Every structure is written in C-alpha cells, then in structure tokens.
Amino acid sequence: MNRKIIIAIDGYSASGKSTLAKDLSNKLKYTYIDTGAMYRSITLLAIRKKIFHSDLWNIKNFLPFLNNINFQFQWNNKLNKTEILLNKENVQSEIRSIKVTNKVSLIARIPEIREKLTVIQRNFGNKKGIVMDGRDIGSNIFPKSELKIFMKGSIDVRSHRRFEYLKKKGKKISYEEVKKNIFYRDMMDLYRKISPLKKSTDSIEIDNTFISPEKQLNIVLQLIENIRFCKKNKNYI
User: Fold this and answer.
1) 73 has which bridge partners?
2) Residue 216: CA count within 13 A, CB half-sphere
C-alpha cells in the first residue's frame, strides 16, 4: 500500500500558508490542520472568559478551561472549505475577527498553552496524510516530516493581501492598521522565547512576493513528485 506523508508549512503572518495548505489538501485529499485557527480559538475562549480584562492577566484561572478542550476540523461542502469546531461549536467565522487577531500573539507565547496544543497537534499526525501550517510545525511539531516548506513575502504585499481579505469580509480597518498588526505579529513570532518562528535547515523556502497561488501550488506539487521519485522503492505517498 502507498504510504502518505506529513507536509509542514511554516512562515510569516499573511504569507499565504493557509492558501497553500488548503490547495494541497484538496489536490492530495489530505486532511488540513490549521494550527493558527487553534490558537485563535483559544484566544476567543480567553476573550469570552475575560482574561484580558485584568491588569495582571488571570492566566492561572484560565488554564483549567483547557484541560478538556476539544478541536475538530470538518469539511463544509457548501463553502468548500475546512472549518474548526471548538468544543463542538463552529467558531470559524468568529476567530477571524479583529479582536481575536489583536490578541492571538499574546496567547501564542504562553508556554502552558503551547505545550497543550503541541500534544494535540502531534496526535493529528498519527495517521499521516495531513497538511499542517503554522509557525513551528517543521521545527518543533513535526521535525521529521517528509516535506517542510517555509513561506515569506514582503510586509507590504502581505499587508495588502490581508487588507483585501478583511475588506471583502466587510471589516472596517485601514491598511495602516493591518500593516502595523502584521509587523507586530512578526516581531512576536520571531522573538518569543518558546518555539519562535524560524526556518528549519531542511525546509524549502518560498518567497511568494511575486508568485501567484497557482504557481506556488505547482512548485510544491513538483517537490512532492520528487519525493515520490526518490522514495518509490519505499512505498511513499
């Protein structure tokens, strides 16, 4: 039998990680795991529990809520996309709000939360056949994954993409606000102490500043074909 692989996609905020991951998932019939959505879901939960209302952050009071937390990813046939369920509640739309976006980096740097999600994310890879995107997938979650991609792009292009996306969603926000948020996210991701954003030595870097999603997909599909060729005697993919 052919054996499926794990594809790890890391990179900067708004660099097109999720677009590539979704395209690969559809093309290969793999499961797409959006780790950013998982952190956003916990951020939403934190907002609901009002942990940001305290000057001292009542993180210790919040952590027990994570003991029985459950994530599910389900395919929406009508919208043709994967959606995340937090404790059986579909929160896909709510986690993309500006209030969540502005707080998610604060949640993502908390060691206890990262440890909790690391265990959950690794469990998703038990059967392989997954595409997972995030900030530390290749470097920390799946360091032995068969294919690692690291994505980057100019901050102006990334900000424009995010701004256009939010505008289409009817969000009222200026380009300057979007760019400021992305710059802030970059700094938080790069310099946090726990699992910072970094390119693994065996990652394939893609700068998609001037690359279309279609070309980007074709580049990675060719990389997968190369893995097929190199591993054909070991029954990969």
Assistant:
1) 84
2) 25
Residue 56 has pLDDT above 60, yes or no: no
What is the per-residue pLDDT across 7-29, written as a single tens digit (0 to 9) for each?
A: 999 999 999 999 999 999 989 98
CA–CA distance, 31 with 12 (Å, rounded to integer): 22
CA–CA separation, 45 vs 113, rounded Å? Answer: 12
Helix (H/G/I), strand (E/B), else coil: 200: coil
Q: Taking phi first (over 0 means left), then psi (-120 to 50 degrees means alpha), and beta for anything else, what does residue 37 get?
A: alpha
In DSSP notation, 93-108 reads: TGGGSHHHHTTHHHHH
Stated pTM of the model: 0.84
Q: What is the pLDDT of residue 169?
A: 83
The total domain count for the chain is 1
Structural domain harbouring 75? 8-225
Check which CATH number belongs to the domain holding 19 and give it: 3.40.50.300
Nearest to 94 by CA among 158, 43, 137: 43
